[in-house]
Fold this protein.
Amino acid sequence: MTKYPRTEKYDPAWIAENWMGPNPLWLLEELGRNLDLRPGMKVLDMGCGKGLTSVFLAKEYGVTVFANDLWIGATENLRRFEEAGVADKVFPIHAEAHGLPYAEGFFDVAVSIDSYHYYGTDETYFPCVYSKLVKPGGQFGIVCVGLSNEFAKGFPETLKEFWAEDMFTWHSAAWWRAFWQKTGLVDITACYDIDDPKGMWMPYAVQTKDWATETQGFSDVDFLNADTDNDVALIVMAARKKETGA
C-alpha cells in the first residue's frame, strides 16, 4: 500500500508540470493526517504556488479554499482551477504575506506547504498577522524545509558551500514548536520530521537538475547528495488556536 493513497489519484505529469519544490501533495497529505478538515470549512492555502495543494484540499476534503500566492498570478491559477473543475470551491488571490486582504477570524484553518519559512520566522508575524486570520478554536498547519537540529553557525558544515542568505530561515522542529508555543495563542497538536526527506525531495530535484545547474551553478541533487549527515528535514507542525487569548 502506498504511503500517500490520496495523492495516487492525481496525474503524476500534472504534478510534475506544476510543482515548485518537493511533491506538495505528499506534504499536504502528511499534514492532513494531523488536521480535522471537514466539508464547508474555509481554508487559507498560504503560498499555494501553482495551486496543486488548493485543488487537493477542495477535492479531498470538500473545503472552500482561498489560494494565496505572491509569485504566481491569480489569473494563471484561476485557469488551473477551472481545468481541475474546482473553480467553484477555490478562489485565487494574489497578495504578499504581510498585506493579506482577509478579515480577522475569517478562516477555520490556515495551511502553508513549503512556504511559511519565507515569511514566518519574523518574531511578530504569527502573533500579529497570521494567528488573527483564524477563528478561536481553528487550526493551523505548516510543512517547512528545515534542519534536524539547530547549528551554532546556522548550517551544517557539509552544506556550507551551498548555503545562501535566505536559508537561515531553516530551523528544526523543536525550534518551530517553541516559536509558536511561546506566544500562548495556540496548543501544538503535532510537530515532527517527515521520514526520508531526501527521498521526498529527490524526484523534484532530478526533474529540475539541468535548469538549476544552468541558473545557479548547482542543483538540488547536488545539495541533497552533499547532506551526508542527513541534516536536512521536512517538518510538519499543526496547532489549534486557543478559545481565549494568552
Summary: The first strand starts at residue 42 and ends at 46. The CA atoms of residues 150 and 172 lie 6 Å apart.
